[in-house]
Amino acid sequence: MKLKYFSHSGFQLTTSTGKRILIDPFLTGNPNAPVKAADVEADYIILTHAHSDHIGDSFDIAKRCNSTFICVNELANYCSSKGFNAHNMHIGGGYNFDFGRVKFTIAHHGSITPDNHYAGEPAGVIISADGINLYHTGDTGLFYDMKLIGEMTSIDYMLLPIGDNFTMGITDALKAIELAKPKTAIPMHYNTFPVIVADPNEFKKLAEEKGFKIRVLNFGEEIEL
Ligand code: NI
Ligand code: MN
């Protein structure tokens, strides 16, 4: 499975079977976006919540690619109401798709669409494909049940925010990896806006002092997991 980082909380997964899955593709209006929405393709789009910096370019991409949305029930219904394919799920539930398994977790945050529709609870998501378990926490503050999440699933990669203000900052993100115990953590949700400026290499240094492995991805970088 390949993982590409678009900056902010946006990622693209490409499985060994060639399925392309986007998570929170926020490109237009994102000063760090390395690609244009028109150049991105998706079979599936997973949204952690409905804030504009996570829905991003989803609808334009889904329209062009006939993508299927995967999100919590209320947000999936919103996508359906706009004419898109959607698979409704909810927190704690998992489902086996043709590319792998998706399970939603709690996240402590908000979720309302840019046009003010309630979009259910915000979520994190665990994607299991090609033998890899990847946990994208979504936007969240620190919570102790990250320990439970790590106990129930051996997390290979944990993608977690470090930008502070709207989400965990570096100090809380360090505690988050102590709780969830991922084999590798990848910081996200930083340096997009002035209020979420944070140094991913400071996070890396502090985490490595505690024995954790951190991979800081450049905006636009793609790695093989
Ligand atoms: Ni948000
Ligand atoms: Mn956000």
Q: What is the strand and helix layout of this fold?
A:
Layout: E1 2-7, E2 10-14, E3 20-23, E4 44-46, H1 52-55, H2 58-65, E5 68-72, H3 73-81, E6 85-89, E7 94-96, E8 101-106, E9 123-129, E10 132-136, H4 146-152, E11 157-161, H5 170-180, E12 184-188, H6 200-209, E13 222-224
Parallel strand pairs: 3-4, 4-5, 5-6, 10-11, 11-12
Antiparallel strand pairs: 1-2, 1-13, 2-3, 7-8, 8-9, 9-10
Cα radius of gyration in angstroms: 16 Å
CATH-assigned homologous superfamily: Ribonuclease Z/Hydroxyacylglutathione hydrolase-like
Do you know the CATH architecture?
Answer: 4-Layer Sandwich
Q: Unreliable runs, pLDDT <50, ≥5 residues?
A: none
Overall shape: it is: globular
Mean pLDDT: 98
**Beta-strand share of residues:** 25-35%
Q: Could you give the order of the helices and strands?
A: EEEEHHEHEEEEEHEHEHE
CATH topology: Metallo-beta-lactamase, Chain A
- List each distinct ligand once: nickel (II) ion, manganese (II) ion
Distance between the terminal alpha carbons, to the nearest Å? 6 Å
- Main β-sheet, spatial strand arrangement: 6-5-4-3-2-1-13
Report the biggest beta sheet as strand number plus sense, adding barrel if it closes: 7 strands, mixed
3D architecture notes:
It is built from 6 helices and 13 strands. The mean pLDDT is 98. The protein has one domain: Ribonuclease Z/Hydroxyacylglutathione hydrolase-like (Metallo-beta-lactamase, Chain A). The chain has a 7-stranded mixed sheet, covered by helices on one side. The chain has a 6-stranded mixed sheet with strand order 7-8-9-10-11-12, with helices on one face. The longest helix has 11 residues, at 170-180. The chain has 225 residues and is an alpha/beta fold. Bound molecules: nickel (II) ion (NI) and manganese (II) ion (MN). Manganese (II) ion (MN) binds at residues 51, 53-54, 139, 166, 189. Nickel (II) ion binds next to loops.
